[in-house]
Amino acid sequence: MSGDVTSASRRLPRGPQPPKPQDGEKIRKRSGADLQNGWLGRHGTLYLSDERLVFVPTILDTILLGRRHEIRLDRLAEVERYPRDVEDLPGGGRRSRLYLHAPECTYELMVPDLDAWIDAIEVVYRLRAKRGETYMPVITRTGVENLLLTDE
Fold first, then answer.
1. 17-21, long-range: CB within 8 Å, 24+ apart, which pairs?
2. Whether the Cβ atoms of residue 75 and residue 81 lie closer than 8 Å to each other
3. Which residue, among 83, 80, 1, 69, has the nearest Cα to 34 in the 3D structure?
4. Which residue has the higher pLDDT, 4 or 111?
5. Which one of 74, 92, 100, 137 is separated from 120 by 20 to 30 angstroms, measured CA to CA?
6. Domain spans of the chain, in order of start
7. What is the DSSP string of 70-119?
8. Paired sense of beta strands 97-101 and 42-49, if any
9. Mean pLDDT value across residues 14-26
10. What is the pLDDT of residues 42-62, one digit of tens each?
């Protein structure tokens, strides 16, 4: 994980579960995801809205004590691609992952089309900047250039 940002442990936070995405909440991206923190991976759906990322486990994983997790976008410190370069392969037969560094925990997620997820998160932060919310986390990856996100 990145040396630029002090990352919290990988231990998932406890406490009250955040709500599922609400009817009035604008969902910008959603897909299946695997939350890989701890010894038991959880399967579910990852939602990206204008205010937060929410992981909602499947019904089976909920029965097996899987919990919902929320990352407020104004608290996200770093969005990291593992491995950082798209040309690199992760060691040990692992899949590429998305690390979301928040003060309470570093979330490790496997999502389909990893770079599209990072692009979507960056687009949401740019939309927030147009509304006056200028905070943007560090985005750590190399070897990817999305022409739709260039300033030129």
1. 17/67, 17/68, 18/52, 18/54, 18/68, 18/69, 18/70, 19/68, 20/54, 20/56, 20/68, 21/47, 21/49, 21/54, 21/56
2. no
3. 69
4. 111
5. 92
6. 27-143
7. EEETTT--EEEEEEEETT---GGGPPPEEEEE-SS-EEEEE-SSHHHHHH
8. unpaired
9. 92
10. 999 999 999 999 999 999 999
- Phi-psi region for residue 73, left (φ > 0), alpha (ψ -120 to 50) or beta? alpha
- Tell me the one-letter amino acid at 120: A
Alpha-carbon distances of 70 from 6, 18, 26, 124, 132, rounded to whole Å: 19, 6, 15, 16, 23
Calpha distance 124→144 (Å, rounded): 18
Quick: pLDDT tens for 75-122.
999 999 999 998 898 888 889 999 999 999 999 999 999 999 999 999
Average pLDDT over the chain, rounded to an integer:
90
The band of 4, judged by pLDDT with boundaries at 50, 70 and 90, is: very low
pLDDT at 6 over 60: no
Which CATH number is correct for 27-143, 2.30.29.30, 3.40.50.2300, 3.90.1150.10, 3.30.565.10? 2.30.29.30
